[in-house]
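Posting this for the archive.
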Amino acid sequence: GGGGGGGGGGGGECEAEPGESLLQSPLHGSPMRGSLGRPLRRKSRRPRRESKAWPLDDYGPLDLPSDIAVCRLALSFMTAWGVDADFDARCAAEIGVSPPAPVLAYGVRGHGGRLSFLTPRAQRRDRRWQCSPHMTALWSLGAVSLANTLMMCPGYDEVRNTCSSVVTHFSVTVPEAMPQLAPPSLSFLARHYCDPTEEVQAAARALLEGALQRMTPQMRQRVVEAWTPRLVPPPHHPPQPTPPKAAAAPAPSAALSRRQLLTTTTTELHAAQPPASPAEKPLPFELTSAHGVAVLILGVLVCRFGAEVDPRIHAALTSSLLALLDSPSEEGRLAAADLLSKAYLVWRSHLPQPAALIRTLFNYAAAAAAAAAAAATRPAAQGSGGEEAPPPQPPPNRFLYHSALIQVGVCEPSLFCAEMGAAAVRMGSPPRVRLAAVAYLISLVKARTASLEPALPLVVEAVLRPLDPSVPSLRESSLGASTTALRELVRRYPMVHFNQPTQRLAVGTAEGVVLLYDLRTATKWRILQGHEAAVTALAFAPAGDTLASFSASEASLRWWAAGSSGLFSFLGLQGSCLGVTRVDCALPDAPGARVKIEWASPQSVGITCDNEALGFFTRPP
C-alpha cells in the first residue's frame, strides 16, 4: 500500500506532489526525515552501536556548530558517490564529507503520507538515481540545497569552489556517467522554483535549467507540446446570464464536460460577490498547480532557450506572468519579474501596458532598496545570554528587482526615461523614491553604451527634470544624484560635454542636431542644426563661447557660437554656425572606437581616436 503512494509521486510528471525524504541507518537506528532532508529530532530506544564503517569523526571536527554538522552529515547521504573520483576526493578533503555505509534504505513519502522504500543493495550506490524522475529530482535538489547552505555560511569560504561544483556534478557528470539515470522530474523542480527558502530556490532553478539544457531542441519542443494543454485549456462557450426571475435551473447539457460545468458555477459565484481590492486580489492559479508549473516550465523554455511557441501561448504566458507579478507571494513576484525581464522582447507584443510594467518593477525595486537600507541601519539586537546577536540580513530581493527593471529599460529606453523622469519629480512620493528614480537612470547609463545614444536627449531631460529651480526643495534634494548622472554621461559618451563656467551641457544626437541645456534653469537653451548625420563628438571651448562638433559619417567639423551675447541669443532663437571644416583624415571602422575633440587653442582643436591623434584643425575665418 505504501509503495503506491511513493511510486505515484514519481510516475506522474504533472500530478506528483512534492515528496519528503527519509533516511534510515541500520547502524544507529536514528531516522532523519523531513522535506528535502530537513532533520527531525527523535530519541532512539536502542543504544548506539559503534561501527568503524561510519565513524562520526569522518564528517569533520566534533566542535562544529550543530547546523553545520547536520548539514554536512545530510549532504554525505544525498551526494552521488562513485561517479567522479576526483569530485569524491574534493568533497572529502575540502567539505569534510565522505560516503556513508553502503547498507542504507532510501525512500520517499507520497500521497496520504504513505512511505515507499528502496531495497538496499550493498554494491549498487547508483540504484536510487535509476528509480524514478521524482526520486532523482528529490535527491538532487536536496544535495544542491545543502551545498548552497554550506557555501553561504560565514567563515567557510574555502568550501565554496567545491560546493558550487555540486550543480555541475548533478547536471552534467552524473547524467553522462549513468546511462540508465532517470531524468529529474521537471514538475518537481518547477514546484520549488519559487521556494521560500533561498538555497532551495536557487538549487531548483539551476537543476531545472540544467535538465532542459541537456535536451535537444526537438526534445524541448516536445516538452512545450506536453505542457501547453495545462496552460491553455480548450476553448468553451461562456455561461449564459442568469434570468432575473427565480426559476428552476435547466438540466445541464450532455455535451458539457465536468470542467465546463465547474467553470460556469465558479464564474456565477464570483459575479455575485463584490470585486476584491487590488491589495487583496487573489492569484488566479497556485504555483504548485498544473497551470502554475506549466507557466514556470514554459517560461523558462522561452526565456532561456528560445523555444518556439504559438502566439496564443505567448499571450497566455504573458497574462499569467503579469498575474504572478501582482500576486501576494514575494517568491512568485520575483520569478515573474525575472522571466518577464530576461525575455522582454518576446513578451513585448502581448503586454497591454509596458509603462505599467516599468512602474510596477520600479515600485518593487524602490521598496526593496528601502528595506535593505533599513536593515543596514537597524541596531544589533542582544541575544538571550547578553551577547550581541548577528546583524540583520538585508532582504535577498534587493538586487533582483533592480536587475529586472534595468533589463526592461535596456529594451525600452525611451519609455524607461519617461517613467523615471516622472517618478523623479512626483512630489507626493518620499524623497528616497525620487532619488531612486535618478539612481536607476544612472544604472541604465552604466548598463548600456553605444546602443543608448539614440535616447541620450531623453536621458538628459529626465535627469534635469528634478533640477527645476521653481521647486527649490526638489532641486536641493536631487542635486547630488542628478549631478552624478550627468557626470556619468559626460564620462561615457563623447557626444555629451559640460562647460563649468557657463553651466551648460551639450548633447549631440543621432539625427545630427546639437542640443544645449542650461543647468541653472534646467531647460533646453539652444538647438544647433547643420549636420546631416549623427554627431560623433563635441566639446566646448574653455570659455564656453564656442562649441566644436564632429560627424564621422559626413567627415565634417562644425563651429558654433555658444555664448550669450547678441540679439539672437537674447531672443532665444536657434544658434548660428560659424564655419565648417572638412576632415580628410582616415577614420577607423571599428564600431567601438572612441573619437574625442580637445581644444588646443581658442581657434583650433585636435581630434583623437582611442587616444591616437587624427589631426589638428583651425576654425575658418
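The mean pLDDT is 77. The first helix runs from residue 2 to 11.
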